[in-house]
Write a structure and sequence with these properties.
Blueprint lengths: L8 H6 L4 H7 L4 E5 L4 E3 L7 E7 L2 E7 L2 E8 L4 E2 L1 H6 L6 E4 L3 E7 H10 L1 H69 L6 H16 L7 H17 L5 H11 L3 H7 L7 H39 L7 E3 L1 H11 L8 E6 L6 E3 L1 H19 L4 E8 L3 E8 L6 H4 L19 H11 L3 E7 L2 E9 L9
Parallel strand pairs: 10-12
Antiparallel strand pairs: 1-8, 2-7, 3-6, 3-8, 4-5, 4-7, 9-11, 12-13, 13-15, 14-15
Helix pairs in contact: 4-5, 5-10, 6-10, 7-8, 8-10, 10-11, 11-12, 12-14
Protein name: histidine kinase
InterPro entries: cNMP-bd_dom (IPR000595), cNMP-bd_dom_sf (IPR018490), HATPase_C_sf (IPR036890), HATPase_dom (IPR003594), His_kinase_dom (IPR005467), RmlC-like_jellyroll (IPR014710), Sig_transdc_His_kin-like_C (IPR004358)
Keywords: Kinase, Transferase, Two-component regulatory system
Length: 463
């Protein structure tokens, strides 16, 4: 049974009528039978009856723009409508059946008589209403905070987009400008013969045109040693300082051999000029890569927040997961992330921003579980008329006493200040709002969360 944030099992038990109390109330009202989706009331009118759930589930939600935010789910023995009946005001919430349900309806006049003739039930009503108001307001405030965070992220992505694009263009122009300036200066460099200048220009052009590859550290170290020895054998000072630049740029011994052909005397100056130029162009390339990373993050953020898109769309689950992995890249450093996506996976109807919050919470928890090492596996596949996403880790698993509480709001095993305990509660609400479900299995081999999302839109008004 879903509880509102901050509501404990004890709170919920105190807000539920006993079976004897429910039986006693049957003499004051009539039983309604509801199908899934049937409304008891909404915010359009005045609530003139008090309702006690006898069987099934009834969800209480609040309209937030075009979306409904689920605040509470009532099961047998729980009740709703009391505050509106007592105040005679229009309801700000809506209530409808989440499954086939039986509800006892007591009109407003009779409800006042119940308060006198059934004191135990009346006490439960009043105390329950007081707690309900607190936890409902807390739940809606939490939703508003999450919505504000999403808008802030979208705005930040928009503001960063233009500067990042400008920096990327400037970096490309800077790299080209450095090459042009160096080559023009080389034309007038008296240290080299015309043939020496031609060979330097040709080698620079050849090296610059080579595809960049990142060799493994051991191979790179071996190449640096070989180049340093080659330069030292030919009397080049600072050979150990020049070798790393050449190795990083992909320069080989045979490339440098060509520079010594016109004159051995020109070689020291030639390798210094080449190393200096390659170091400058290498810095611009590093700048371009960093700016490209920023642009990629900005793009991922825009996709992540579903900026400038309708709230309900056909959502590409895999793209959402990939954008989330990009956003969480800093936290997943040192973690081996394995992907297993079924080819041609269909899109699911829903709110892309909410689903990305689900992936964020699951991947964030998985990263915490492996503590900067180990592996995380993300799997997405079709199962009948649903898409299933599994996020698993090879961490130590959860103790038995923790497993049953992971979806409770405000429950966390993290250190104080590291988490509010709302992540999995938010995830479960979002999944339920898409008509899906989320489950968890944990053992010594690790933890696996599975999210099942229907391919047909049948939302249950999650927040």
């Amino acid at each position: 049974m879903m509880r509102a944030p901050g509501e404990t099992r004890d709170d919920q038990e105190e807000q539920r009528l006993t079976e004897d109390q429910v039986r006693a109330l049957y003499g004051y009202g009539r039983e309604l039978r509801l199908e899934e989706g049937d409304y008891l009331f909404d915010e359009k009118g005045v609530v003139d009856s008090f309702y006690v759930v006898v069987g099934g589930e009834v969800g209480i939600s609040r309209l937030d723009g075009a979306e409904e935010t689920r605040l509470l789910t009532h099961g047998p023995g729980e009740f709703t409508g009391g505050l509106a009946v007592l105040t005679g005001r229009r309801s700000i919430h809506r209530a409808r059946a989440l499954s086939p349900a039986r509800v006892l309806e007591i009109d407003s006049e009779t409800f006042r008589r119940v308060a006198v003739e059934q004191p135990a039930a009346a006490d439960a009503f009043i105390s329950g209403l007081a707690r309900r108001m607190r936890v409902t307001q807390r739940a809606f405030r939490q939703h508003e905070k999450l919505a504000a965070l999403g808008k802030l992220s979208a705005g930040l992505a928009h503001e960063l987009n233009n500067p990042a694009a400008a920096a990327s263009r400037a970096s490309e122009e800077l790299g080209a400008g450095i090459l042009t300036a160096q080559l023009r200066a080389l034309e007038h460099d008296a240290r080299f013969s015309p043939e020496g200048r031609r060979r330097l220009a040709d080698l620079l052009g050849e090296v610059s045109a080579r595809p960049t590859a990142t060799p493994d550290p051991l191979s790179l170290s071996d190449t640096e040693d070989d180049l340093a020895l080659w330069l030292e054998d030919r009397g080049v000072d600072e050979a150990r300082d020049l070798a790393p630049t050449f190795a990083a740029a992909g320069v080989e011994e045979r490339d440098l051999e060509g520079l010594s052909t016109p004159s051995e005397k020109e070689l020291p100056g030639a390798v210094r000029w080449l190393a200096g130029t390659l170091e400058l162009t290498g810095l611009t390339q590093e700048l371009s890569v960093s700016i490209g990373r920023i642009s990629h993050l900005v793009g991922a953020m825009k996709e992540y927040t579903f900026m400038d898109r309708p709230v309900r769309v056909e959502v590409d689950v895999v793209q959402g997961i990939e954008n989330t992995l990009t956003i969480l890249g800093h936290k997943l450093k040192g973690v081996a992330v394995a992907r297993d996506y079924e080819e041609g996976l269909p899109k699911v109807p829903g709110n892309g921003g909410e689903l990305n919050q689900v992936w964020t919470n699951l991947l964030d928890n998985a990263a915490d579980a492996v503590a900067g090492g180990g592996s995380v596996r993300v799997r997405a596949f079709r199962d009948g008329e649903a898409v299933v996403v599994e996020v698993s880790d090879d961490g130590p698993g959860m103790p038995p006493e923790i497993k049953g509480r992971v979806f409770e709001p405000f429950f966390t095993t993290k250190e104080v200040g590291s988490g509010a305990g709302l992540g999995l509660d938010v995830a479960r609400r979002a999944v339920a709002g898409h008509g899906g479900d989320i489950s968890m299995h944990s053992g010594p081999e690790g933890t696996r969360f599975a999210v099942r999302l229907p391919l047909e839109a049948r939302t249950r008004n999650g927040g």
